[in-house]
Predict the 3D structure of the following.
Amino acid sequence: MSSQAETTRHALYQRGRTLQRLSIILTYIILVVVAFCILLPFIWLLSASLKNQTQYYAVPIQWIPQPFVWSNYVEAFTRYNFGRYVLNSVLLAIYAMVVNTLSSSLVAFGFARFRFPGRTLWFILMLSTLMLPSQVLTIPLYVIFRNLKWIDTFWPIIVPQLFGSAFNIFLFRQFFMELPKELDEAARIDGCSNLRIWWNIILPQSKPVIIVVAIFSFLASWRDAWNPLIYLSSQNNRTIPLGLLYFTDGYTSVYPQMMAATVIALAVPVLLYAIGQRYIDSGVAIAEIK
């Protein structure tokens, strides 16, 4: 009797193992199919960037160009002024990354470490701006910047970075509240001011959130097409997203060269994510409401 029970248990165990293996195989198949569907547009983009105009419009799609037209990447820089767009985007993105990160951390330090009347109310009001579409502010801001004679300059894009970002302030504040306040008290006993505490005590221990906010700020500036479209008009002031809108040869769009420029524009976010992936993933934990 025990032998029969042992055989039954073994059969059930083998059946369970078989079902488990099948479920794992099915999961991998689904993931491969989904990954292929996600990567397919990028594969087409890379292929299109190496085609000539005839191959680009060929039907059916010619996935492997014959021959590879590497000159599309050279022409994007030499003929269509893409190098200037890259330079503008890089400078603005680095500025946003540094200034927005510092200003957001300073504001978050005040919300996390100081007690003052209406602190919670001001924090809620600050967070409520996240629900306000940026387009709502476009007309009043345009009028202000026009009166200041800042249109077609970088000032309308540079100056708002000085006031931080509501989402970045939220991330910093949540992280700062996890740090023990005994550090601040010990620093005050040693004669540190509030700014010294923020700069020498809090920021050195906030590397994860600093990296997350820095990457978010860089990418937000890098892909921003709305503000350059509204405030910048001259060709030399265009950024990458705005420049791609005007990637034409007279009145005709030059799609192979445009695809080459798009590949270059996408390379930076992909590289940043590859470098800071574990910190970006930790941003979800940082944003946990305390």
The radius of gyration is 26 Å. The chain is about 70% helix and 0% strand.
